[in-house]
Amino acid sequence: MEFTIDEIADNLPGLGVAILHLLHAGDRSAVRGDVIFQKELFLIGDYIERVGDDADFTPHIFGPYSEFAEVALDELVSLGLVRRTAGGYTLTSDGVRVWEKVRSAFPADEVGAIEDFKAFINDLSVDEVLLFVYVTYPEYTCESARLHDILQKRRPLSASLYRKGKISLEKAAFLAGMNLESYLDYHMVDPEVG
User: Fold this and answer.
1) Global confidence as pTM
2) Cα dist. 95→7, 67, 78, 80, 131 in Å?
């Protein structure tokens, strides 16, 4: 059974609307795969309480994971609003049309936050994203299959985040598991750090 754009827009749950906002953000650039999608939505849900409540993130093999978000994304794909390719997830033209009808469900400050989170993560590697999320939200790492591997690389990963201008020097030291003075010494010894 085919649904009209208006019918889809009228019946789209809040989590679906949040996902459309995420995919529309950043000039509709692709969200590069499932791990990045989950972590972007997790950060959004940490900021926008109703998104976090709807998604109900739990610890998983790659850190915070939401089965509800995965199902909502799959539904958007099956409705023809989202395209899944090797490059990630993007909005279709129908997805843009539905987004235009539902975008007012989020106030400007929340839309701005979604834009900011996507801009923060969009050009990071999966390992950089995992380091940021694992160290910032350690309560979600208890099931992680990658925690040990990521923590082994925490100094160069934190340095890369700092070099890209994504985090402050203080946050880089925190992610590296070092105090600021030690991190500055590390920074001075290895000029590639920054």
Assistant:
1) 0.92
2) 13, 21, 11, 7, 32
